[in-house]
Structures are given as C-alpha cells and as structure tokens.
Amino acid sequence: MTRALAYLRISQDRDATMRSVDNQRSEIEALAKRLGLTIAETYLDDDISAYSGRRRPGYEQLRDALAVGPATLLVWHVDRLYRQPRELEALLDLVEQNPVRIEAVRGGGLDLNSHEGRLQARLLVSMASYESAHKADRIRLANRRGAERGDWHGPRRFGYQLTGDGSATIDPVEGPVVREAVERLLAGESIRSITGWVNTTGVPPLQHKTNSTQAWHTNSIRQLLAAPRIAGRRSYDPENQGKGQSVIRQVIGPGRWPGIITPAEHERVVAILRNPDRRTSRSGENLLSGIATCSRCGAGLVIASSGQGPKARRRYVCKKLPGRPERGGVSIEQRSLDAAVSEAVVLRLAATPAPPRLDDDTSALWGAVASARQRLDDLATDYGSGDLDRRSYQVARTAATEKLEQAERALRGASRGAAVGRLPLGNEAALRERWAAMTVGQQRAVLGALVDELVIKPAERRSRSLDLGRVDLRWRA
Fold first, then answer.
1. Is the confidence at residue 391, as pLDDT, over 60?
2. Which helix (H) or strand (E) holds 148?
3. Rounded CA gap, 287 and 146, in Å?
4. How far is Cα 286 from Cα 441, in angstroms, rounded to an integer?
5. Is 208 helix (H, G, I), strand (E, B) or coil?
6. Distance of alpha carbon 471 from alpha carbon 430, whole angstroms
7. Cα angle 171, 252, 228; round to 5
8. Do 417 and 432 have their domain in common?
9. Which of 26, 43, 301, 350 is most buried, with most CB under 10 Å away?
10. 452: which DSSP letter?
11. Local structure of residue 238 (DSSP, 8 states)
C-alpha cells in the first residue's frame, strides 16, 4: 500500500495556538519517514472531542478518502481517531472492501483487515471509551463543586477582569457599559436600540473563537444582559449547556466576585427577557410604528414612503394584505403625528408627580419569583424520587407556574414604570429638553409606560394639517 493519509485531532485548544496539533504533526511525519511513506493528505479536527459526539469535518473527509482504495493511516495514537465503539464499527464496515492499516506513533500498528487487528482495535476503543466516560464524570463533579463554591467558570467575560484565584473584578471601562445597558432595558428600551447604543460607545465585545467581530449584535447583548454573573451570581445548568443564547441559566448561588447590578435588578431583567409579548420587529426605528393602531382592524400601523430625498413623504399606514379586506384605508402623516403625540406626552409628564422608589416596590416581587422557581425545582425533585404521583405533581406544578407568571407580570409592570421614573417629572422645560435628547428607543419605552391605546381613524376629507379628531390617545391608569 503506497497511499498514506494522516489524521490529527486535539480535544481542546484554549489559547488557539494549535501547539498540540503541531506536535502531533511533527511526530507523524517522522513516523512516515521511518516507514518509507509519503503523506498524500492530512486531515485535521482542531478543538473537537471525539467522545462528545460533535461533528468532526476532518474525520468525515478521511472516511471518504478511505473508501476510495487501500491506504495506510497515520495517527499519533488510535484514541485520536476514535473513542467510542460505534465509531470503530463504522470504520470496520468501511474497510471491508479496501485494506487499511493503522500506524500510530504511540501504540504501534493495527491491521483492520485481520481478525487479530480488529480484536486489538476493539479492546483499545473499549478502554478509551471507559476512560473518557470516567473523565467526564470527574469533570462534572469538579464543575458542580466549583459552582457551589461560587468559583468563576471559563475565560474572561465582558465587564470583568480575572484575578486568578477563582474570582474576578469589575472592569473599569466595560463595567459601566453593562450597567448602562441594564438601566436602559429596565427603562423599557428595546434590545435592538441598546445594541445600537453599545456600538456607539467604541467598546468592542471580547474576541473569542465563536465571536471574532468588532461589532455587537442583538443576540450577544441579550446573552450579556441575561447572564447571572453580572449580578455576582453563579449559574450551573449542565442540561442546557451549549443550547444557544435563548437559554437563561439556572442560578445555583452567589459568586466570588462583585455584581455590576443587584440580584433584584437581574430578576427584573430576566422577567423582561422572558416576556413572550415583547416586540421583536424592526418597528423601533420609528416612534409610533406598532404603537399606533388602525381603528378599523386593530392592526399596528407601519411606515410607508413616497418620493425620494428630502421631499419624501413618510406616513403611518395600515398595510393592505391579500384576503384581508378589512386591512388598509388608514393613513396619517408621520411627522405631524409624532409631534402631536410627543407634545401630549411632555404635558402628561409635566402634570405627573414623582413615583415611589422602584426598588422598594419590587423587592417582594423578585423574591416571589425566586420562591416560585424554587418550588418548581423541589416538585421536580420529589416527582423524580417517587415522593409525588403524576397527578399530584401536575396539580402542584400548575399552581406554582401560575404564581411565577403572576410575579413576573408584576415585575414587567414595575419595569415599565422605570422608564418614567428616571425623567424630571413635573418640570416641563426640563422634560422638553430631555425628550429631545432621547433616542427613539428611549422615547418608545416611555410611550409603552404611558400609552394604553393610540387609535388612528380614517380621514373624512383631504387636509394638509393634522386632524386631531382622528387621533384617540388613551393613557394607562
């Protein structure tokens, strides 16, 4: 067999130096030279564990190459090639048609086309599988113990600097950015608007393998705000590990580092992010998109433009849809409606007294949220251990879920009030100045706290000026 193929794999490459891969490569090349072989192709999987079950692109390409014809496969050790019995059996099925010999830097050679070689390969993979499973158990236990101690887990995260002793300190530049982003969310600003603001600060996200860009995105901002660590809390949720950014991690206890925000504020953040009614459209680019509704069908109005350049006319319209005859027929000029609603908001706020302190109002609410979540965890434990039958578990779980939803709804209502509580209430001049300086996202947050309904009626006649009789603005109680 003259065709020689090489396969290299490293399970972890935390510093992205590929040092271990380069070591494997040099020793495999030396082995090929001793055997008088010339390596035709090298296949590589960097930072991928064979035991984890993750897809290995380099290994898949190698299997395709082995199906072509006879070959000698060079590896550093056979456990670099496979660590689970099912992978070996798939490889054995593949080489039934073509002779394949494995030559390893550590461990010698294996002829997969002989009974002895197959037996030896199966013994080695069984040992490797046991070793990997045993190692995984040790790692899980160590991670659990570290979480219970409140140790920092993983690399440096945005907002913090590592101290090297299982703790961290708040970064003097990144910490205030996190603080301001949380305050904006609690005040009712959208994730998209916050993302735009963070990108204007000039503070880029941390550079990791999975994030090599210099710009923030809505997903990364959402993940940052939902992270318990910014409240000095340690999360441990192995079942949801790697399931993406939509998962809000389970808190196991306090961490050994200071919080940028308080636990109470974090509970309010989580309640907002878990709210299924939060709008996720691009309507936040305009002040009243989605807030103003059509009196005929109840649909939210959207922006439509006619013309180009400075003379372009922008209007809020009820968008026509095929098969929906009730849609359409309502249109109103954007600039005039924005100005009228803004004026009404300023006057409303000028006549509004200062609200009570928000933290005093919500301390009991976020405590109720934590209690309801703990109740759900306890019920799951009792059901799993057999202390509760299925019917009793379902009844108790329904009751606990209802309490959790009630507390989170109350928290969301309190958060809406935060958008107003930060304004100079009762001072008309200061309010006009603040309103003019606010972003569209911040203004929409205030509207969400104040406006119950903003209904636009069809025009009865053509007019260049805004007919306020078409606008039905109702305030929240």
1. yes
2. helix 115-149
3. 47
4. 9
5. strand
6. 26
7. 35
8. no
9. 301
10. E
11. G
Running DSSP on this structure, what letter comes out for residue 98? S
Last-in-domain residue among 273, 290, 320: 273
Instruction: Say how far apart CA 296 and CA 319 lie, in whole Å.
Output: 12
CB-based burial label for 387 (10 Å; 0-12, 13-18, 19+) = exposed
Residues 6+ apart with CB under 8 A from 14: 155
Alpha carbon distance 209, 214 (integer Å) = 13
Whole-number CA gyration radius for the chain: 31
- Of 273, 297, 322, the one marking the end of a domain is 273
Tens digits of per-residue pLDDT, 345-383? 999 999 887 654 444 445 566 667 667 777 877 787 777
Q: What is the CATH number of the domain that holds 193?
A: 3.90.1750.20
Instruction: Give CB contacts under 8 A, 24+ apart, made by 318-327.
Output: 318/294, 324/297, 326/296, 326/297, 327/294, 327/297, 327/299
Q: Which residues have CB under 8 Å from 160's CB, separation 6+?
A: 168, 169, 170, 171, 174, 175, 229, 257
Higher-confidence residue of 357 and 303: namely 303
Do 139 and 61 have their domain in common? Answer: yes
First to last CA, the chain: 84
Written as one string, the DSSP assignment of 255-313 is -SS--SS-HHHHHHHHHHHT-TT---SGGGGSSSTTTEEETTT-PBPEEEEESSGGG-E
Residue with tokens 């009751």: 399
Number of domains in the chain: 4
Look at residues 469, 473, 224, 161 and name the one whose alpha carbon lies nearest to residue 343. Answer: 473
pLDDT, averaged across the chain: 78
> How far apart are alpha carbons 468 and 454 in whole angstroms?
12
Strands 108-111 and 100-104: antiparallel
Distance CA 159, CA 178 (A): 7
What does 312-370 look like in DSSP terms, one character per residue? -EEEEE---BTTBTTS---EEEHHHHHHHHHHHHHHHHHTPPPPPPHHHHHHHHHHHHH
Full residue range of the structural domain in which residue 317 is found: 282-353+425-475
CATH of the domain at 55: 3.40.50.1390
**Size (the chain), residues:** 477
pLDDT digits (tens, 9 = 90+) for 332-352: 999 999 999 999 999 999 988
Strands 331-333 and 451-456: unpaired
Rounded to the nearest 5°, which phi and psi values hold at 151?
-70, 150
155-169 burial, b if ≥16 CB within 10 A, otherwise e? eebbbbeeeeeeebe
- CA 353 to chain centroid: 38
For 200-238, the pLDDT digits (tens) are 888 888 865 555 567 898 888 998 998 988 998 887 766
CA separation for the pair 11, 80 (Å, rounded) = 9
Q: What is the largest CA-CA distance in the chain?
A: 94
- Residues 305/269, Cβ–Cβ less than 8 Å: no
Which residue carries 């070793």 as its tokens? Answer: 131
